[in-house]
User: Fold this.
Amino acid sequence: MLRSSGALAATSAVLAACSSTKPSVARIGESPTTVKLEDLAVTDVVLLRTAMSMETMATAMLSNPAVTALASKDTASVIAAFAADHTSHLEDLQVLISARNGEAYSETNAKLMQAYGQTALDLVASGKLPEDTLALTLAVETLIAATYQYFVSLAVQPALRADLVRLGARSSRRAAVAAQLINGGTGGFAPANDKGGIALVATLPGAFGSLSAVQVQLGPVNEVGSRTTVLMDTPSLNSLIY
Amino acid sequence: MSMTTRRRLIASLLAGGAVIASAPLFAGQASAAEAGGPPLRDAADNDALNSSLERESRMVSTYRKVIVGLTENDLIAMTLILDHHVAYAQALTGYLAVDVTTPSSAPLASPAGSLTSVARQLAALEDQTATIHTDNLATIKGIDAAMLLASIVTVEARHSAALELVAGASPIAAVGN
Assistant:
């Protein structure tokens, strides 16, 4: 009896020590306490509110004076039409949110604007290169399409997944048009390099929609002859609009 | 109280203490298992996925006819789109595995002539294909299949817009406005 109860007592002690939430390592001096993050669920409404923030961000970026002032006459009207499309998507999203008793969101995605949106606009403004306006447009449309594609994996309702893909497909079409305006004709469909080995813009860069970060080179040429590469990621847990 | 009963009581108390002490260790795993999100795959999706596969199979046959007689960049571009549809058919076949039903390979059209003259017809076929997949998405329960179809529709939308431009549409018209 003593053997078995001793083993059980030892097991209890070990497990009880493991289950403790207090730090078990002795410290000297003060240490900051960890504040546990609030548990937030990624619901369909959260995805739709985040989509609204992304569409608003796309509108803000494509109609920013840094872009509109630099765009050529031909491309300015196209970029303006793309910006208007994103505004119209907000209405579609509002309907989907209302149907789920959610609250619409009318601001840009502040975290992503801070992470790369404003940086991209600042680079376009400082570079003063008209071609940057189309490069930024292509990147933004590719990002929005990827966002909707990614949200399909998070959405709960199958019907909503289809709605998200429909919205994403519109951005995908705009991305293809922007790519063709940069590198037109059927010669621009497939990925290829120029004579110097630099990758050209491809209208159809892959068979399946990519979810990796969208890369775009913007701004002035630096002292070593290269330009800044901006990485644009789809929203994640820390940039969703809960 | 007899000796045997006392032993049982002590053993029970110790065992109970061990269970209580270990409960927090397993609480996280338990809550994760009970999350109850959508399934990764669902056998009920197979019919819809087979219909998507059939469409892709027929798109492959259509593009095999399109590339006949094309040259240079037009040939490269249409072969690229053909390869994309081959990849979609292969991906869906792989996903369905033993649940695949042999799809039709009848072409959806017999486009002949220059790429410019058939591009609008091909753009319409791409739109219809994307619509079939999107409608299927609205019924599919499995997340893996939904993600696969979403990644296909994203690129087929690009096919369509690019082909509209080849057919002579303006940039704003090519996006579908």
Summary: Confidence is low (pLDDT under 50) at residues 19-34 of chain B. The domain at 43-174 of chain B is CATH 1.20.1260.10 (Ferritin). The radius of gyration of chain B is 28 Å.
